[in-house]
């Protein structure tokens, strides 16, 4: 077992520009952590939740995951323990992790989602003794990092997903700066959708130039895209090169946290 595997209550946030692959990468990382025999809780904060699909649930089952109560204070200061909440609102997925759905906007004009974010923040602040890894798939946008009391304030480490475009790299750099302000101890970049060595090289060079450490670069994989279209992305084994990039990210997370 690695140092990370021995560490309990690891709290990760996955962020980045819209469409870069946050949910796909979140699903792959959660599967990989679960594959190491770790208890994983995957938390979807997208107002249009679809992390369940990346963990092998059908659309119907993804939509049936109950929304966490809003504005809840979890832990000693609040009314519910994290474990209780996971028990009641979590749903097992075919990929292994337990899925929580924090935010759902079911109708137009249904109001802001701050209450859902507050619950996730509180959940991460609690000890989360019952799980080895809690991973939050964040909705796109920087406001939940910049707002005082950001959702991920209690995360140990942020993974910024980035595709091979200049805009995506700039978003990653801004995100990393906000994360530092919020007091998140570690930020790593994850390149995604690299179609060739030029893309991979661009990602590594441009991210490092922005002061970011690159945990790994996932290739663009036709089978990931096809499985996404077929709704089976959380079930199928992934290409060896995708899997090895995912393992590279896990190892990097391990090394960064072991240095603490
Ligand atoms: N490594 C990859 N290879 C191929 N397609 C990918 C890869 N990562 C993500 N995608 C595709 O990109 C699109 C956006 O991915 P998604 O994970 O939903 O992004 P986000 O959560 O950041 O909005 C999806 O169609 C997904 O299948
Ligand atoms: Mg998403």
Layout of secondary structure:
Elements: H1 3-6, E1 10-16, H2 22-35, E2 40-44, H3 51-54, H4 59-64, H5 82-89, E3 91-92, E4 98-101, H6 114-125, E5 133-137, H7 143-146, E6 157-162, H8 166-182, E7 186-194, H9 197-209, E8 213-219, H10 222-230, H11 240-258
Parallel strand pairs: 1-5, 1-6, 2-4, 2-5, 6-7, 7-8
Antiparallel strand pairs: 3-4
Helix pairs in contact: 2-11
Bound molecules: adenosine-5'-diphosphate and magnesium ion (MG).
Task: Provide an overview of this structure.
This protein is of the alpha/beta class. The protein has one domain: P-loop containing nucleotide triphosphate hydrolases (Rossmann fold, 3-Layer(aba) Sandwich), CATH 3.40.50. The protein has eleven helices and eight strands. Strands 3-4-2-5-1-6-7-8 form an eight-stranded mixed β-sheet, sandwiched between helices. α2 crosses α11. The longest helix has 19 residues, at 240-258. The radius of gyration is 17 Å and the shape is globular. The protein starts with a helix and ends with a helix. Mean pLDDT is 88; it is low at 1-6.
């Amino acid at each position: 077992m690695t140092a990370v595997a021995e560490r309990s209550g690891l709290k990760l946030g996955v962020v980045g520009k819209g469409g870069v692959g946050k949910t796909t990468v979140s699903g792959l990382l959660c599967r990989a952590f679960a594959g190491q025999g770790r208890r994983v809780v995957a938390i979807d904060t997208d107002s249009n939740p679809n992390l369940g699909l990346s963990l092998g649930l059908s659309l119907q089952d993804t939509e049936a995951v109950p929304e966490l109560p809003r504005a809840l204070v979890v832990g000693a200061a609040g009314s519910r323990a994290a474990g209780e909440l996971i028990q009641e609102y979590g749903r097992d997925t075919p990929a292994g992790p337990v899925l929580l759905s924090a935010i759902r906007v079911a109708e137009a004009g249904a109001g802001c989602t701050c209450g859902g974010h507050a619950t996730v923040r509180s959940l991460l602040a609690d000890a989360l003794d019952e799980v080895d890894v809690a991973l939050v798939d964040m909705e796109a946008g920087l406001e939940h990092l910049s707002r005082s009391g950001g959702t991920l304030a209690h995360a140990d480490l942020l993974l910024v997903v980035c595709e091979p475009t200049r805009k995506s790299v700039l978003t990653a750099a801004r995100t990393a700066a906000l994360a530092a302000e919020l007091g998140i101890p570690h930020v790593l970049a994850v390149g995604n959708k690299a179609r060739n060595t030029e893309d991979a090289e661009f990602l590594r060079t441009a991210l490092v130039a922005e002061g970011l450490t690159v945990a790994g670069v996932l290739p663009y994989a036709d089978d990931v895209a096809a499985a996404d279209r077929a709704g089976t992305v959380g079930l199928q084994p992934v290409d060896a090169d995708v899997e090895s990039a995912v393992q590279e990210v896990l190892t990097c997370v391990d090394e960064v946290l072991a240095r603490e």
